[in-house]
Every structure is written in structure tokens, then in C-alpha cells.
Design goal:
This is Alpha/beta hydrolase. This protein is α/β, with parallel strands linked by helices. It is 39% helix and 12% strand. The protein has a single domain, classed as Rossmann fold (3-Layer(aba) Sandwich).
């Protein structure tokens, strides 16, 4: 069974451009975290959505890639694939590294985070069309503010030192959120941005299923 984990606040809509009709798959649903809940404890609760008696393949995007790696520490997984994500805080850009060290996200009011998302999302996600922009901004609008604050804190304070067995990292060369020049051991997608699961879906689909096979 293939389990898909979407990005921060997103849902299965980001996977709609993949042809999954001939695969056994499930979309992991985000659940409301407790305010001070540890990421590892949160991931334990997500495992309730996974049938661990079957072969497990995890595919996570962005924050979902981080969660996929944490889940893979808790259960046996045949393959873990992360897209537009990171394997460690050491792969942060200098801007995110600065934000992490200063814990800037705890100082900035929520409304400013939300406003910056609305204004700069198209640029940072590498949106290619009006349709993609509409989808992205609808996802941003639907994101639970409490989940947003919690998840950003988990990303900023993630200290990962070990990688799952059979981990594959697929990353776009034009990703502006997690620049590829800071990331090691990746399968590069030329001109792929942070939203490449949408605008390069056919290319990613072929690559993903080649890995799984």
C-alpha cells in the first residue's frame, strides 16, 4: 500500500494530477495536534491510518516528507520517498537557518505569516498558471491557523540525524523554499519548483513508480 502525505496544511488535492487509479493507495489525513505536542508523538497517532500488516510505502511532500521520515522510524517501511523536502535542518537555506537560530517564527504574529503566504506564495512555490495559483491559495485559505503555527515550529526545531533505509529524495532545481544547492543525495528535477507535484506531475509519476518497482 502506498501512503501519501501532503505538505503543511495541504491535503490530497496536491496529488490530483497523478494517475493513481491502478494503485493501492491512501492519503494520510492531518489531525489536530496539541499545542506543545512533539512531532514524534504526533506521528505515532498518524500511524493509526496505516495498515502495518501490509507492505508500506511512504511518499511525503515538503513537511509531509519530514513526517514520512519520522513515521519510518516507528514502523517498517519498504520505501520512503520525499519530494520538495529536507532530510535535516542542515539542508536549510541561510534564511531558514537564521530563522531557526533566532526562533523568529515565535515572534512574528500569525496574521503576518498568513499575509506573507498570500502575497508571496506564487513566487516561492513556483506557480506556473492561474489554475495552479487558485489551487494553492485555496489550500492556504483552508489551512487551520493552529496547525500552521504548530507545524512551522516543528520544522524549525527538527533535529534529524538518521535517514530511513531505502530513502529516495526527489527535488526540483528551482525550489525557492528549500534550495537544492543546500541539499545532498537527491534526484534532481530540472526547473522543478516547490509546487512541482502539480505542474510536473507526469514526470514525477514516472519517476516515483520506477522507484517503487
Amino acid at each position: 500500500m502506498i501512503y501519501f502525505i501532503s505538505g503543511l496544511g495541504a491535503d490530497e488535492r496536491v496529488f490530483q494530477f497523478l494517475d493513481l487509479q491502478n494503485t493501492d493507495h491512501k492519503f494520510i489525513k492531518w489531525i489536530a495536534p496539541q499545542p506543545a505536542e512533539r512531532l514524534s508523538d504526533y506521528c505515532k497517532k498518524l500511524i493509526d491510518q496505516i495498515d502495518i500488516k501490509q507492505e508500506v510505502i511512504l511518499i511525503g511532500i515538503s513537511f509531509g516528507g519530514i513526517v514520512a521520515q519520522e513515521i519510518s522510524k516507528l514502523i517498517s517501511c519498504k520505501t520512503t520517498i520525499i519530494l520538495s523536502s529536507i532530510k535535516s535542518h542542515k539542508e536549510f537555506s541561510w534564511q531558514l537557518t537564521f530563522a531557526r537560530k533566532t526562533q523568529l517564527h515565535k515572534i512574528i504574529p500569525l496574521w503576518i505569516l498568513q499575509l506573507s503566504n498570500k502575497i508571496a506564495a506564487n513566487y516561492y512555490f513556483g506557480v506556473k498558471s492561474k489554475e495552479e495559483s487558485k489551487l494553492l491559495h485555496q489550500i492556504i485559505k483552508d489551512t487551520d491557523p493552529k496547525f500552521l503555527v504548530w507545524a512551522i515550529d516543528k520544522i524549525m526545531n527538527w533535529k534529524n540525524e538518521s535517514y530511513p533505509k531505502n530513502l529516495y529524495h526527489i527535488h526540483g532545481t528551482s525550489d525557492k523554499i528549500f534550495p537544492v544547492n543546500n541539499i545532498k543525495n537527491v534526484i534532481e528535477i530540472p526547473n522543478g519548483g516547490h509546487f512541482m507535484i502539480v505542474n510536473k506531475a507526469s514526470q514525477l509519476q514516472q519517476l516515483i513508480f520506477d522507484i517503487i518497482k
